[in-house]
Amino acid sequence: RMSAGDDSRLSDSLASSSMKTSSPGNAMAGTSSGPLQFSKEMFQPPPPPPPHLQPRSDHEQELKAELMLLRARMKELEHNISNCPNISLKEKFKQEVREIKEKIKEKGGS
Q: How far apart are alpha carbons 109 and 60 in whole angstroms?
């Protein structure tokens, strides 16, 4: 059972905490929160890309696509090599990987 003294302390603590939270403006008074109004300059479209960035030529795009296919095939073969129990088939896969690496080197890929 609460005594009258306990009851008054509870109400005092509630009153002091409500005073602290009742004025949120004081916490922001010293800080800068940016502009209060929007302007048209804030919403300008991004500038166009620099003119020296030319789109890739058809030849470059074709070469890039071919290199991507070669790398994908090489990755597939490496996966097959790591999971293949047949030794002669594994050697065939390794030979294909060597050939693909040579083609990639010829085409200028790393």
A: 12
Cα(68)–Cα(104) distance, integer angstroms: 10
Of 80, 82, 70, the residue nearest 108 (C-alpha): 70
Handedness of CA 83, 87, 88, 93 (dihedral sign): positive
Question: Distance (Å, rounded) from C-alpha 66 to C-alpha 81?
Answer: 22
Q: Which residue has the tokens 């090489």?
A: 74
Which residue, chain included where needed, has tokens 């003294």? 5
Structure tokens at 64: 């890039």
**Residue 58 CB partners (closer than 8 Å, separation 6+):** none
**pLDDT digits 0-9 by tens, 59-102:** 889 999 999 999 999 999 999 999 999 999 999 999 999 999 99
Which tens digit of pLDDT belongs to each residue from 26-71?
445 555 666 677 777 777 777 776 666 566 688 889 999 999 999 9
CB atoms within 10 A of CB 80: 16
